[in-house]
C-alpha cells in the first residue's frame, strides 16, 4: 500500500480501530505487529519517520546482555536470550550470529569471564548461537589482529547476534501492512480524545498536508520511547515522570581499525558500561557511553567529552589509535530507561520494561531494548486487549516471519537486508540501467535503493533514504552529503516534487549530516 492509500483508510469512519499505537520505533512497531497478528484492527502513528529516534541509533546488537548478567539480573538475561533466538529465526535476513572476543590482560580475568560466559551459554539453551571457549594469546590475535598485544594473556570468545536496527524497523512496518493494517509516518498525535473520562481515540495531523484527523479506538497505546512522558501528560498533565533518559554515543571508523570477522567486547569501562567495537556493513562501530540528559529530542548530538571517552578507550585496546579525523560518523541515541526513583546512575538501571495503565485507559509501554521488543509487544497487547474489552487471543509472533524473511543472507552483502525482495530491488536496474550505478565510491548503495525506498518503503525525505532505508549517514556522513543532490533528484521524480523541494531537502539534510561530523 502507498501512503496515500493508507491515509484513505483514515477517512472510513464506519469502523473503530481496535488499537491505535502511538510511536513508530521498535516498541511501537513490535506492539502494532503483535496486535495485528492476533487479528485486532491496528493503526500505528509516528510523528516523524519510522525509527527516527533511538531505534536507529543502537549498538546494532541483538543480545542477552552480558552487563545484566554481571549485575545479577538473571531474569532479564534469560528473557533476552530467548528473544534473541526467536529473532534469529524470524528475521534471518537481518539478524546474524557474530563472534565476540574478550581480550584478557590480567591473570584472574580468564576464569572469571570464562565461567560467566559459560553461564551465558547455558542460559541460552537450545536457542544458543555457539559455545564460548577460552583462547590462547595467539588465537586471540588471530581473531583480533589489531588488538593491543602488550600484556595480552589470551581471550574468551562467545556468540551473540548483530542486526541492522533501522532496516528491522522498516521490515516490521512492512509486516504490519502485510497483515492488512496501517503504519503511517509523519502523522503525529496532537491530542487524546476522551468521553466520560475515558480515552476513546486521538487527534492527529498529517505533516505533509496539514490535514487534521479525529480517530476513534477501543484502546490507545503509548509506545513513544523517550517521549513517553509527553504523551502521558496529554492524559494526565500532573503525572510524575517515569523516564530517566540516558544518551549513548557511537563512533563509526574504517574497517582497517578492526579487520576480521570478530567483535571486541570490553566488560568494564570507566563509567561502568560494556564497550564494543563491532564490524558492521564494512565499517567498525565503537560504543557506547552513558550520559544522563535532562531533555529529549529527535536529533540528539554527541557531546565532545563522549567522543573523547570513546577515542581514549579505543586507543587503549587497539594498536592503531583513532583520532577525530578518522571518525566517519558519530551518532547519539537516547535510552528510555524507567525512572528508578532513588537517584541511581543510569548506567546501573536495568533495561526491563514496564506496562502502565492510567485511570482513563491509556496503556503505556516503556523501557526495554531492541532485543526484547517482541515480548514487550506481547505483554502490552495482553493488557490493552483487557482494557478495550476485546476477545482474548493468543500471541503468534514467536513464530511469525518478518517481512522479507529469507535464509542464507550475509551481513556484508548490501542488498541482503531486503531478504526475499533483494532480487526485485536488483531488477530496478533493468527499468533504468543508470540506477544500478553506485551513488558514491565510499558507499555500498546505488540509485535503485533510493527508488525502491520511495516506491515500497514510504520514504518521504532525503534523510529517510540516507539515514534509515540505507545507512549512508551512519557509514560516512561526508559521503552522504555528497550524494544528497542526486538522491533529491531521484526522489523528486518518484514523488512529483519540484526543484524548490529538492533544494530545500538538500539544505535540510546537509545541516543534519554536519551534526554527525566529529570535527
Please provide a brief summary of the model:
The protein contains 16 helices and 18 strands.
- Taking all Cα atoms into account, the compactness measure Rg is 23 Å
For the record, the count of structural domains works out to 3
Main sheet specs: 10 strands, mixed
The name CATH uses for the topology of the largest domain is FAD/NAD(P)-binding domain
Number of helices: 16
* Beta-strand content estimate: 15-25%
Distance between the termini: 42 Å
CATH superfamily of the largest domain: FAD/NAD(P)-binding domain
Structural class: alpha+beta
CATH class of the largest domain: Alpha Beta
Low-confidence stretches: 342-350
Name of the CATH architecture of the largest domain: 3-Layer(bba) Sandwich
Binned, the helix content reads 25-40%
Shape: globular
Average the pLDDT over all residues and give the rounded result: 93
Number of strands: 18
Describe the protein's architecture and organization.
By secondary structure, this protein is α+β, with helices and mostly antiparallel strands. The chain is built from 16 helices and 18 strands. The radius of gyration is 23 Å and the shape is globular. 35% of the residues lie in helices and 22% in strands. The protein has helices at 3-9, 26-37, 66-70, 74-90, 109-124, 137-143, 165-178, 228-235, 304-317, 373-388, 422-431, 447-456, 462-469, 472-475, 477-495, 499-514, and strands spanning 17-22, 42-45, 61-62, 95-104, 133-135, 154-163, 182-184, 189-195, 198-205, 212-222, 243-254, 262-266, 275-280, 283-287, 291-292, 329-338, 353-357, 363-367.
